[in-house]
Every structure is written in structure tokens, then in C-alpha cells.
Amino acid sequence: MAHGMRMDTHSGYMDEGGGDWRDAATRYALLPLRVFLGVTFIYAGIDKLTDSAFMHDAGAGSVGDLMRTVRDSSAIPALVDLALKNPVGFGYAIAFGELAVGIGTLIGLFARLAAFGGALISLSLWLTVSWASDPYYYGNDLPYLMAWLPIVLAGASVFSVDAMIRSRRRRRTSSAY
């Protein structure tokens, strides 16, 4: 007999009902972060695509000028040089990447993969654009990178396409036996 030890293995994390408030809090804990990151990345992608100055090789507010400005202060100048080979293409890649990451995160479709993409975007921006921020916490890309990591690890447990697919798969598997 185990005194004071919980003997059941049910965590309630993936189940739709039951459990106490701690189980519900665990299930919904990442939802506000998913919504924030998803909306923010969708907005960032749309903002870049609709900014008349951004998608140019040169000029005030252009992606090309931004890359040339941060080149010497970045942690990886070779990464900036790669972007400078085609600044407009790089700008579109970042904008569409942010849109894909934002939509995937918001609706919870391939949430871990979307979050991994968001982490990669944030990491590349931290190592290039905001690397010279002093002190380091003034740059916003590092906190975004850290915010993506829990979603990379845990995925989207509720209000997501991934959870709906898991639920259907579980029902199909349990009804087959």
C-alpha cells in the first residue's frame, strides 16, 4: 500500500472532459501564447507584404537597407550576405514564412512544426537584426524565440486541428477493437 501517493496514471492532459481545475489549466496553458504568437506573426507577415517600402532592394524602410545596416553588427554576417544576394526574395520568404507560421500556430495545424518555423525565424532575426541590442533583452527576437519553445515541445492540445485529428484517430482506433 502506498500512502500519500497517487496511484492512477491518468493525467487528463489530452482528454476532453473530467479532471480538476489543474488538469484544465494544464490543457489550456499554452492557448494564450499560441493566440498571441499566431496573431503577431500573421500581422508581421501581412505588414511586410503590404508595406510599399519594405519589398525593395534599396530605399528608406527597405529590406535591403535593413540588411546592409545590420550586416556588420550581426552575429553571423554570412547569413546577412546570403539575404543580400536577393533582398526582395528574402523579404518575401520571411513574410510568407511568418504567415505560414502564424496560421499554423493559430489554428493548431502541424503546431509543433509551425512553432519550430517560428523559432527558426526568431533565431535568425536575433542573430542578425537584433544581435547588437544592448543590453540583449532590449531586442525583441530573443523573447520570441523563447516563447516558441514551449509550443515546439508540447504542441497544441486544445482548440486545434491537431487535437481534432488526434481525437478522431483515437475514436477510430478504439472502435476498431
What is the compact description of this entry?
The protein is an all-alpha fold and 177 residues long.
Give the SSE map.
Layout (H helix, E strand, L loop, with lengths): L20 H8 L2 H20 L12 H8 L6 H8 L2 H21 L3 H18 L12 H14 L6 H16 L1
State the share of residues found in helices, binned by percent.
55-70%
Q: Structural class of the secondary structure composition?
A: mainly alpha
Order of helices and strands: HHHHHHHH
Output the radius of gyration. Answer: 21 Å
Distance, first to last CA = 33 Å
User: Could you give the count of β-strands?
Assistant: 0
Beta-strand content bin: under 5%
- Biggest beta sheet attributes: none
**Uncertain stretches:** 5-15
- Using the alpha-carbon principal axes, give the shape: elongated
Give the overall pLDDT as a whole number.
89
Count of separate DSSP helical elements: 8
Task: Provide structural commentary.
The chain has about 180 residues and is an all-alpha fold. The chain has eight helices and no strands. The protein has helices at about 20-30, 30-50, 65-70, 75-85, 85-105, 110-130, 140-155, 160-175. α2 (about 30-50) packs antiparallel against α5 (about 85-105). The radius of gyration is 21 Å and the shape is elongated.
